[in-house]
Amino acid sequence: MIDARPDRQHQPDPRRWRALTVVLVAGFMVLLDVSIVNVALPSIAAGIGADDSELQWVVSGYALAFGLVLVAGGRIGDARGRRPALLTGLAVFVLASAACGLAQDPLMLIVARLVQGLGGGLVTPQNSGLIQNLFRGEERGRAFGRFGAVIGISTAIGPLLGGLLIQVGGDADGWRWIFFVNVPIGIAAMVLAYRTVPHTPRPPGERTDYDPVGAVLLGATTVLVLLPFVESRSWTGNRTWALLVPAALLGTAFVRWERRYSRRGGEPMVDLTLFGRRSYTYGATLGLAYFAGFSALFFVYSQFLQDGVGYTALQAGLASTPFAIGAAVAAGLGGRFVHRTGRALVAAGLVLVLVGLLGAWLAIGLVDGGAVGWAVAGPFLLAGLGNGLVISPNQTLTLSEVPPAEGGAAGGVLQTGQRIGAAAGIALVGSLFYAHLPNGFAAAARLGFLVIIGFVALALVVAVVDLAVDRKIRERASVR
């Protein structure tokens, strides 16, 4: 459990809940663009003649740029204030979204998606940073509950919204509305953010240190780690995975630089003492493993329903809706009770996810044809309820001991791990899925679900180990 006692030195901002609503709308928009484009790829190919390699970059380019700036974006918010960082990120994202919608060829769309990812990566860490700054005690748990609901729902509902927009806009140009819809929402979010999000820069005279060397080393490491995973289907041969060697070298150089920089009195890009906090280390590890399975789930299920069963993009999106409903319902409850139950709540949520996924795995094997979507609906609702008890409580627990002034960078590191986990999970599960298609779509999907179940089980092991360690610490404390 974590300390839910109020911070008596903290003066709550009366605008905090309105500010949170605005930044969560912005966060929903940029996280939605991670998944919503998947169902639009056939429409993009037909509209501007993009080939398979170019379509892969439309998807992966956003993910790469998004992951590249998460930590730096959080660090900028810590140093310069949440509002300027949020407004800048939204401006970049809105302009890039308009450019995506107006793209006349694949190259223009890919470049615009890269820029859009940079804007999204600057916006996202301001969510966790703002929660750290504005909320304390049980209120922080409820705020993270809403943030967790945004993460879960944006991933699950992306195919549904994408299918709706394509159906309304038509096969040739419907994909453009996936990007155009961001423009009015983004502009409204900017106006409301300026009015509701407090500007809390560092006090005058306090030095602002951006650690540019650390930022470059971390950015290069992140790209080299993500690239083999997001391009696993486009690049062939083992040379792709050779990029992990320079990634390891640069990662080592980053850690050594940060330690040296800190000893010299500088303010590092990432405070490595974060990983000396058990809550942060276990939570980040759990999040990496869980997102490897969680993100791959909808990739496999959508492909199975559309290519194997014959669902339209809209029907495939509707079939995933029970998961989103369960996640929305449980995320708020998880945020309210996490202070009383601690990591045990996360472990219980992971058990529900496992039971739901096993039920879906059985349903896919037992039910043929279009009825499979109805058969999976119940297990998906259960898995969604479990998901709501995992993401937001884990966010709360992981950041519970992080000082508010470091909330943006710490949240950026946490979300970078989640992006790496998502990329790795989709790459592994996707490659196995496509390799086993000769055995039939149902067999390939069931194999993919088994790997996803394995990732969720790994996250559960981390949660159980954390609980066991916490119990031993409490027993030793009681003996003293």
Quickly describe the structure.
With 480 residues, this protein is mainly α. Helix content is 79%, strand content 0%. It contains 19 helices and no strands.
Question: What does the model show?
Answer:
There is one protein chain. With 480 residues, this protein is mainly α. It has one domain (16-198, 211-474): MFS general substrate transporter like domains (Growth Hormone, Chain: A), CATH 1.20.1250. Helix content is 79%, strand content 0%. Helix 14 packs parallel to helix 17 and helix 15 (343-366) runs antiparallel to helix 16. It starts with 15 loop residues before the first helix and ends with a helix. 55% of the residues are buried.
Outline the secondary-structure elements:
Blueprint: H1 16-35, H2 41-48, H3 52-80, H4 82-102, H5 106-123, H6 125-134, H7 137-169, H8 174-180, H9 182-196, H10 212-230, H11 244-263, H12 278-309, H13 313-319, H14 321-341, H15 343-366, H16 372-388, H17 391-398, H18 407-435, H19 441-479
Helix pairs in contact: 1-5, 1-6, 1-7, 1-9, 3-4, 3-5, 3-10, 3-18, 4-5, 4-8, 4-9, 6-7, 6-18, 7-8, 7-13, 7-14, 7-17, 10-11, 10-18, 12-13, 12-17, 12-18, 12-19, 14-15, 14-16, 14-17, 15-16, 15-19, 18-19
